[in-house]
Amino acid sequence: MKKLFSILFILLLIVCVASCELPNNKPNDKPNDQTYEVKFLDEKGNVLGIEKVEKNKTINEPSYSIDGYDTISWLYNGQPWDFENDIVQSNIELVIKTKAHVHEFVNGTCKCGYKLSDSSLPNLSEEELKNLTATVTFWHTMGQSNQVVIDEIIKAFNEIYPNIKVTHSSQGDYADLRHKILISMLSGQTPTIALASPDDISLYLGQRVGNVYYGPMALDEFINHPVYGLTKKQLEDFDLNSLKQSTSFDDNGKFYLVPFIRNTEVLYFNATWFEEKGLLEKYNLGEIEYVDDIPTFVRNEGAVLTWEQIEEIGKFFVEQPEYKALSTAEKSDYYFMSYDDEANLFITLTKQWGGEYTKLTGANQGEFVFNNAQSKAMVKWYKDAFDAGYFATASAWGDPDAYTSDRFVNGQVKMVIGSSAGANYNNPGDKFVLGILPYPQRENSEHKYAFLNSIDLTLFDSKSELEELAGWLFIKYLTTWTEGLPVEKQPAYIWNTRTGYLPVLNSVRNSLEYNKFLQEGSLNGIAQKIALEQREYFYSTPAFIGSPYGREEVENLIKAVLYVNYNVEDAFFNALAELQYKYN
Q1: pTM (two decimals)
Q2: Distance CA 559, CA 383 (A)
Q3: Domain tally, the chain
């Protein structure tokens, strides 16, 4: 009997345990749909963190930050997120908005914790700075007219720092300058300062091997020094996009450049020929009027030409009796329109055709992605227009280093796409009346772009701390607003109005004097005014190790298709093969 009861007890226990087993998920079980995912991103789209938030609840403001930057706000669809009142009702992404951190010292310590005693720079007083003795070498690519402006600025600089000698010299074009700097970095014979693009800095930083380094210096300690650094007002005076380009080379956002030169591309055309052919009226561009007894093109407000219209006028050009009368050999010297810069042609029109040129894959890392249908369609379109006699580039006349401006003022082309800072080079004098229009866009397209060229100033690691400091003082004087100086004596204002380069300082661009200059009717003023009209279309290519090689190879690609008669597929294959060889 006891054995029977024992068996029954065990069976009852098994039933109880089975009945208490946790239930499996059933088909009608629903996941929790009351929780959403909030992603916090940096401005490049990298994920800083992810949090789960209940539906209709607010979010605590995150502590994520970017080294070297102060957080201003978090943006949702471009608008600041209100952490006290905004509630989460779906999966969302919040993007951090930042500004560069400027140290504010109290008793030698910034509120961020940085101490002046941590600096490796010479701690000289303002009086000691004025007596600083050093020689600064400045390498650039400037022509004679711009060197005259630099000489004047150096003369004014020496009124403050009489014992700092600044010597400057042109090293050729930008490719020449880059090549010479790369060689000088190997021997330690670098200049004190030089012009450099973001592409150049990425390349120079990639040459660092071991502890011996003569490349560009991080400028953060100079910028943040309480005696000879930049004030918060001076730093925030720079255009925000320019500052971001200056700090895009590593994850720490260090400064390697100070913004200096900006220019875009505009369209120069022979307004006299356009008037004679009835094209000013047909395309509602404007008219030629006498201003102070000088025939002058007066543009209608908002007048532009699209690529479709330029192609149409190109067809009209080759149908003119004077063109048809030329021999086949002579026709190779005459085109309707020429583009000065083959690399810009490829990159900008790739973007206008809806394709991409490069993309970033990490800090100072990227890849070339122009092997796409849009880029190839664009190159074929330009090739067809070249074969028809409509379009060419500066290389059409056999000189690889030439610009089209000489051909333009001689009447061999009726239209040029060139730098907004090149108005004086395209000045025909009394040969014909010059007209200037914005860079062409495609009709009915959402892909509207105009290239913004960025050439800035960088400081090289030197054997002398005092030489580095003197170089920094000249960079600061040349690029920032100096308190107490009238606008017309500000170095940045002088540089912009005398050279044709666009302002990088808001204080210059917004000054009454600069806006008066834009209205006065000088060629530089007209070109800059038209250039600034297209600011909403400005773009710059991301910089990474090897990115300068991309410009070289797409330039060669265009030349190969137009002048060596490569087919488009072969030209793309060769360009990508060269990049694979150079980049890796």
Answers
A1: 0.79
A2: 10
A3: 3
